[in-house]
């Protein structure tokens, strides 16, 4: 008997006495409904009470709740089970599709209109938080299409389901408790508190803990409203980036030509050096313009989201602040690139070359092989981050090949 099953058996006896707090729904019972109710009663409710959530809030929000087993990426009660072998998030798939010009061409005109519509407010937000308005709008666009995307899920149900049978149960249990705190505070109703299938809420797609820390009431109506207020949404995004270390006055990065004499294995923020040192090594902007004078003595690093199969960049610290919003190089690059295109709607100079499509499971296997050879891939998680890319490149060089730093 596994630890989780033993724990479930102990829960069951105690929960039978108190199940009236979370009664059986009138719908036909699902496969996991009974165990889910026990989980709520014996695990979530005590933890939420310790966090200051009242019994009346718990009864109101959890009464009759059932798990949504249609959500992607679930592994089984207690988080036990084989992780999915495919990538459900677009940010972790082949970059060429993620950076289709059609997406940017669709988002740029609306962003320009919103920049004009909110010119005065955006100037105030930029002055207070030090984050450029074009970056704020680009995140808003990527997260919810400036609020136009459907955000269809009940946040509490999503978070409770992932706490019960997702890959990171402890993480999602804490987010569920944070969501209950949000509802108790009264900023939003349960009906309005909609989320993605991953539990991210509202137009800026904040997890509940991020909402509690970073959402702001910039329109001064007494509510931190990231669901229907454009002003609160923009200011909350800016506050998030500022609190995560945005460097005022610096850009996010620059597309460059990386000569063959500079190995792609030098990628990564732990290999930063002054930008003028890269210039002396022959790294130049693809635009033909020099790097801004104020950037030359500032640190930067090589960024190659598809290795030698795609564009190369010199990234600043602000690129990694964007990654605090979503832990994906492709995501941060999309935001930075879209922000640039509000001014001049031109795509990358270098192409995304055709590459082999792979699965998360196959990447995880490759990472485990590289780890066995002593490489630091940043954890065998099936995601091709910069540590995995440069480890691939080092392995290629060890075998006498020119490093491409990509699967192939």
Automatic annotation (TrEMBL):
Keywords: Signal. The keyword Secreted does not apply. Residues 45-340 form the Transglycosylase SLT domain. It holds the Pfam family SLT_2. The keyword Signal applies. Gene3D superfamilies: 1.10.530.10, Bacterial muramidase (1.10.8.350). This is Lytic murein transglycosylase. It comes from Roseibium denhamense. The lineage of its organism: Bacteria, Pseudomonadati, Pseudomonadota, Alphaproteobacteria, Hyphomicrobiales.
